[in-house]
């Protein structure tokens, strides 16, 4: 063999071996490999391209399914459903319901898709996502980019028929051209997805659709919830899907009290609340050059704001309305603090974007260790402990 052919063979073997090694590390969800190589590579891409690449990877199940069962300490039951663990993926990642099976394989206890609007719409102009690396945060102003009810419905229905799947929530939004006071978009969403979703979410808290947050005002909210609940109760299905309300963190004390009072009324009694959406506020210690971009801020800066908001709503509702806590969850300790504040389940998104699939297993492992070290046999024993003592 000539020296040139020897060199070619050596390069081929080396590249082939490297590619095989990398593929196996990705397939196995190797934490170090993702931290040292995969995530730094994705950060070289613009944020929306990186997002699309992540959805593609989950859609095509490029991560090996978690085989080891979740610890019993983190299993829970809510709304008549069993959750193998309380860690879910928040709406906003899998907007078009393309990657539910891959996300289930990653180890999430439940997956929330959307937000979904009745008619397809493009959302806001690009650029509309900004990565604040120094702050471990993201600002987005996507504006409910959605392929619409029809396209998403077929995917959710197909996933729901699989024997092994995650608990699936469908987050419902409004089209931009719909009048803000019109509740029809949400009613249509309930009618469309009510028979196939494990739970439904009424999203009135996105900061990226003009006027939407006005639906959190007492009078408007009472009208919205009563109409949507009526539609849900008239679905004519054997098991009615739980109806949840997703609220904003940027509410004053009076507004929080008003929302709590509304959702405790018999004709407006939702099955749960998601606390909370992204914030329009900007902490003074943000470092990134993108900190002043318009949109909703998520990630580490939202963590304490969200936890306080969870505690407030747990106290205001007397613990009667189950809470899904979301905002700045990146460790098992973060999840534990949300649970202590009053959350029955926890969601993450931004940390998943920054750290990749291995974060799910790590948070579950850390949460199990924390529960055992604190003497809790199950997460249900810890719910609301700090809220009640404060």
Can you walk through the features of this model?
The protein is an alpha/beta fold. The chain has two domains: 1-42; 47-389, Alpha-Beta Barrel (TIM Barrel). It is built from 13 helices and 13 strands. It has helices spanning 3-27, 31-42, 47-59, 100-106, 149-160, 184-193, 218-233, 253-263, 303-316, 332-341, 350-355, 358-373, 385-389; strands spanning 76-78, 81-83, 87-89, 110-116, 129-132, 137-140, 167-172, 199-203, 243-247, 272-275, 296-299, 323-326, 345-348. The protein has an eight-stranded parallel barrel, surrounded by six helices. The chain has a three-stranded antiparallel beta sheet with strand order 5-6-11, with no helix packed on it. Strand 5 (129-132) and strand 6 (137-140) form a beta hairpin. The termini are far apart. Residues 13-25 have low confidence and may be disordered. Pfam families: DHO_dh. It catalyses: (S)-dihydroorotate + a quinone = orotate + a quinol. Residues 74-371 form the Dihydroorotate dehydrogenase catalytic domain. Pathway: Pyrimidine metabolism; UMP biosynthesis via de novo pathway; orotate from (S)-dihydroorotate (quinone route): step 1/1.
């Amino acid at each position: 063999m000539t020296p040139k052919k020897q060199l070619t063979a050596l390069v081929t073997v080396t590249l082939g071996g490297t590619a095989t090694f990398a593929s196996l590390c990705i397939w196995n969800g190797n934490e170090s490999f993702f931290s040292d190589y995969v995530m730094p590579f994705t950060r070289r891409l613009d944020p929306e391209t990186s997002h699309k690449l992540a959805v593609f990877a989950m859609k095509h199940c490029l991560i090996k399914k978690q085989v080891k069962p979740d610890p019993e300490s983190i299993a829970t039951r809510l709304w008549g459903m069993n959750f193998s663990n309380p860690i879910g993926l928040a709406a906003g990642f899998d907007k078009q319901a393309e990657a539910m099976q891959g996300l289930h394989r990653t180890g999430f206890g439940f997956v929330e898709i959307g937000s979904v609007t009745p008619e397809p719409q493009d959302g806001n102009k690009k650029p509309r996502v900004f990565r604040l690396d120094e702050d471990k945060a993201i600002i987005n102003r996507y504006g409910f980019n959605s392929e619409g009810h029809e396209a998403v419905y077929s995917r959710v229905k197909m996933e729901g028929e699989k024997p092994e799947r995650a608990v699936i929530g469908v987050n419902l939004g409004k089209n931009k051209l719909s009048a803000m006071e019109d509740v029809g978009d949400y009613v249509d969403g309930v009618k469309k997805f009510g028979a196939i979703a494990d739970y439904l979410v009424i999203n009135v808290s996105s900061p990226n659709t003009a006027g939407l947050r006005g639906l959190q005002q007492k009078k408007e909210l009472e009208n919205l919830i009563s109409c949507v609940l009526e539609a849900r109760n008239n679905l004519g299905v054997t098991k009615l899907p739980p109806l949840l309300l997703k609220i904003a963190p940027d509410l004053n004390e009076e507004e929080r009290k008003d929302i709590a009072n509304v959702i405790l009324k018999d004709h407006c009694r939702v099955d749960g609340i998601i606390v909370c959406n992204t914030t329009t506020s900007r902490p003074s210690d943000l470092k990134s050059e993108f900190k002043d971009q318009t949109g909703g801020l998520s990630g580490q800066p939202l963590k304490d704001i969200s936890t306080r908001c969870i505690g407030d709503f747990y106290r205001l509702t007397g613990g009667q309305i189950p809470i899904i806590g979301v905002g700045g969850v990146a460790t098992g300790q973060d999840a534990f603090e949300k649970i202590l504040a009053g959350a029955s389940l926890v969601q993450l998104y931004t940390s998943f974007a920054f750290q990749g699939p291995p974060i799910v297993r790590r948070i579950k492992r850390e949460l199990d260790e924390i529960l055992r070290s604190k003497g809790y046999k199950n997460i249900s024993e810890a719910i609301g402990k700090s809220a009640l003592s404060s």
